[in-house]
Amino acid sequence: MIMLGRRIVVYGPACSGKTTVADHIAQHIGVPHVELDAVFWQPDWVEKPTEEFRADVSALLNRHVDGWVFDGNYSNVRDLILPQVDTVVWLQLPFRTVYWRALKRTVGHILRRTPLWGHSYETFRNSFLSRESLLFYIIMNWRRYKRVGQSLEEIPHHARVIELHSQREINAFLADLSSINK
Question: Which pLDDT belongs to residue 144?
């Protein structure tokens, strides 16, 4: 039986399945799911200033006193979230899996004109011809995702850490959610 608690954070690279896993957990244990990308990104890919982002995350932590599931890799708020967490779910999928998912997702968003977080759109230009591209970001920052482990060592916390290294492990974890003691 998996005992997650009521305050969970899901870490992992872009397109590793953080939001999907976090949403499943939140629905199962009956707490709000907070996607940090939706808090951070403003319309037209404008980044929220750090202090405003930290204030917004602090307000969300204080608002959801009965529990929450956060997903996102934002190191500038990790010190706010991690000390309160019961469980960290750390998705560590291989690069080829993550990059393939990012490519498929990006093309799909472009073709369908899917808004991300209700206000920003991926375009061919910003996805394939820009240094701000998610695809370029994944390549250039792949090693940074390993810093989650460094944060887990440096930021004081008492969280249980669950590391999942493949889609098969993720699927098994989600299947086991039915055995969680609420």
Answer: 80
pLDDT of the residue at 148 = 82
Cα 116 to Cα 120: distance, rounded to the nearest angstrom: 5
> The tokens of 147 are what?
């810093």
Q: Where are the domains of the chain?
A: 7-179
Regions of the chain where pLDDT drops below 50: 181-182
Structure tokens at 131: 């240094």
C-alpha–C-alpha distance, residues 93 and 149, integer Å: 14
Q: Looking at the DSSP assignment, which residues form a beta bridge with residue 70? A: 9, 34
- Domain 7-179 part of CATH 3.40.50.300: yes
Give the C-alpha distances (Å, rounded to integers) separating 146 from 71, 73, 102, 153, 159.
16, 11, 18, 12, 18
Q: Residue 166: how many CB atoms within 10 A of its CB? A: 13
Q: In the chain, where does DSSP find H-type helix?
A: 18-29, 36-40, 50-63, 75-81, 95-112, 124-128, 134-141, 147-154, 167-176
Angle at 10 between CA 81 and CA 120, to 5 degrees: 90
Neighbour count for residue 85 (Cβ, 10 Å):
22
